[in-house]
């Protein structure tokens, strides 16, 4: 049986690459498909006008805190070069 606190609670950390400029974007979300669609429809402040985007990496996280922590790590100096 799945514990109630993790049932239906999934967070993702993801990395996108702009097909136009090669720019990379790292983010986190509860709904990866919806968020990816938003990026490609220019509905995201930080990524509009840089698409189209391709998803080059994602990972599942246990909760929002874990996802935000992992996102910050990937954006840091150490995480950028892994």
Question: Which properties best describe this structure?
Answer:
single chain; 82 residues; alpha+beta; three-stranded antiparallel beta sheet; 3 helices
Portion in strands: 25-35%
> Total number of β-strand segments?
3
Extract low-pLDDT stretches.
none
The end-to-end span amounts to 35 Å
Can you tell me the number of structural domains? 1
What characteristic shape results from the CA principal axes?
A: globular
SSE string, helix = H, strand = E?
EEHEHH
For the CA atoms, what is the radius of gyration? 14 Å
Structural commentary:
There is one protein chain. This protein has a three-stranded antiparallel beta sheet with strand order 2-1-3. It is globular. It has one domain. A hairpin with a 5-residue loop joins strand 1 and strand 2. The mean pLDDT is 87. It is an alpha+beta fold and 82 residues long.
Blueprint (SSEs and pairs):
Layout: E1 11-18, E2 24-29, H1 32-40, E3 53-61, H2 64-75, H3 77-80
Q: Would you kindly provide a brief summary of this structure?
A:
With 82 residues, the chain is of the alpha+beta class.
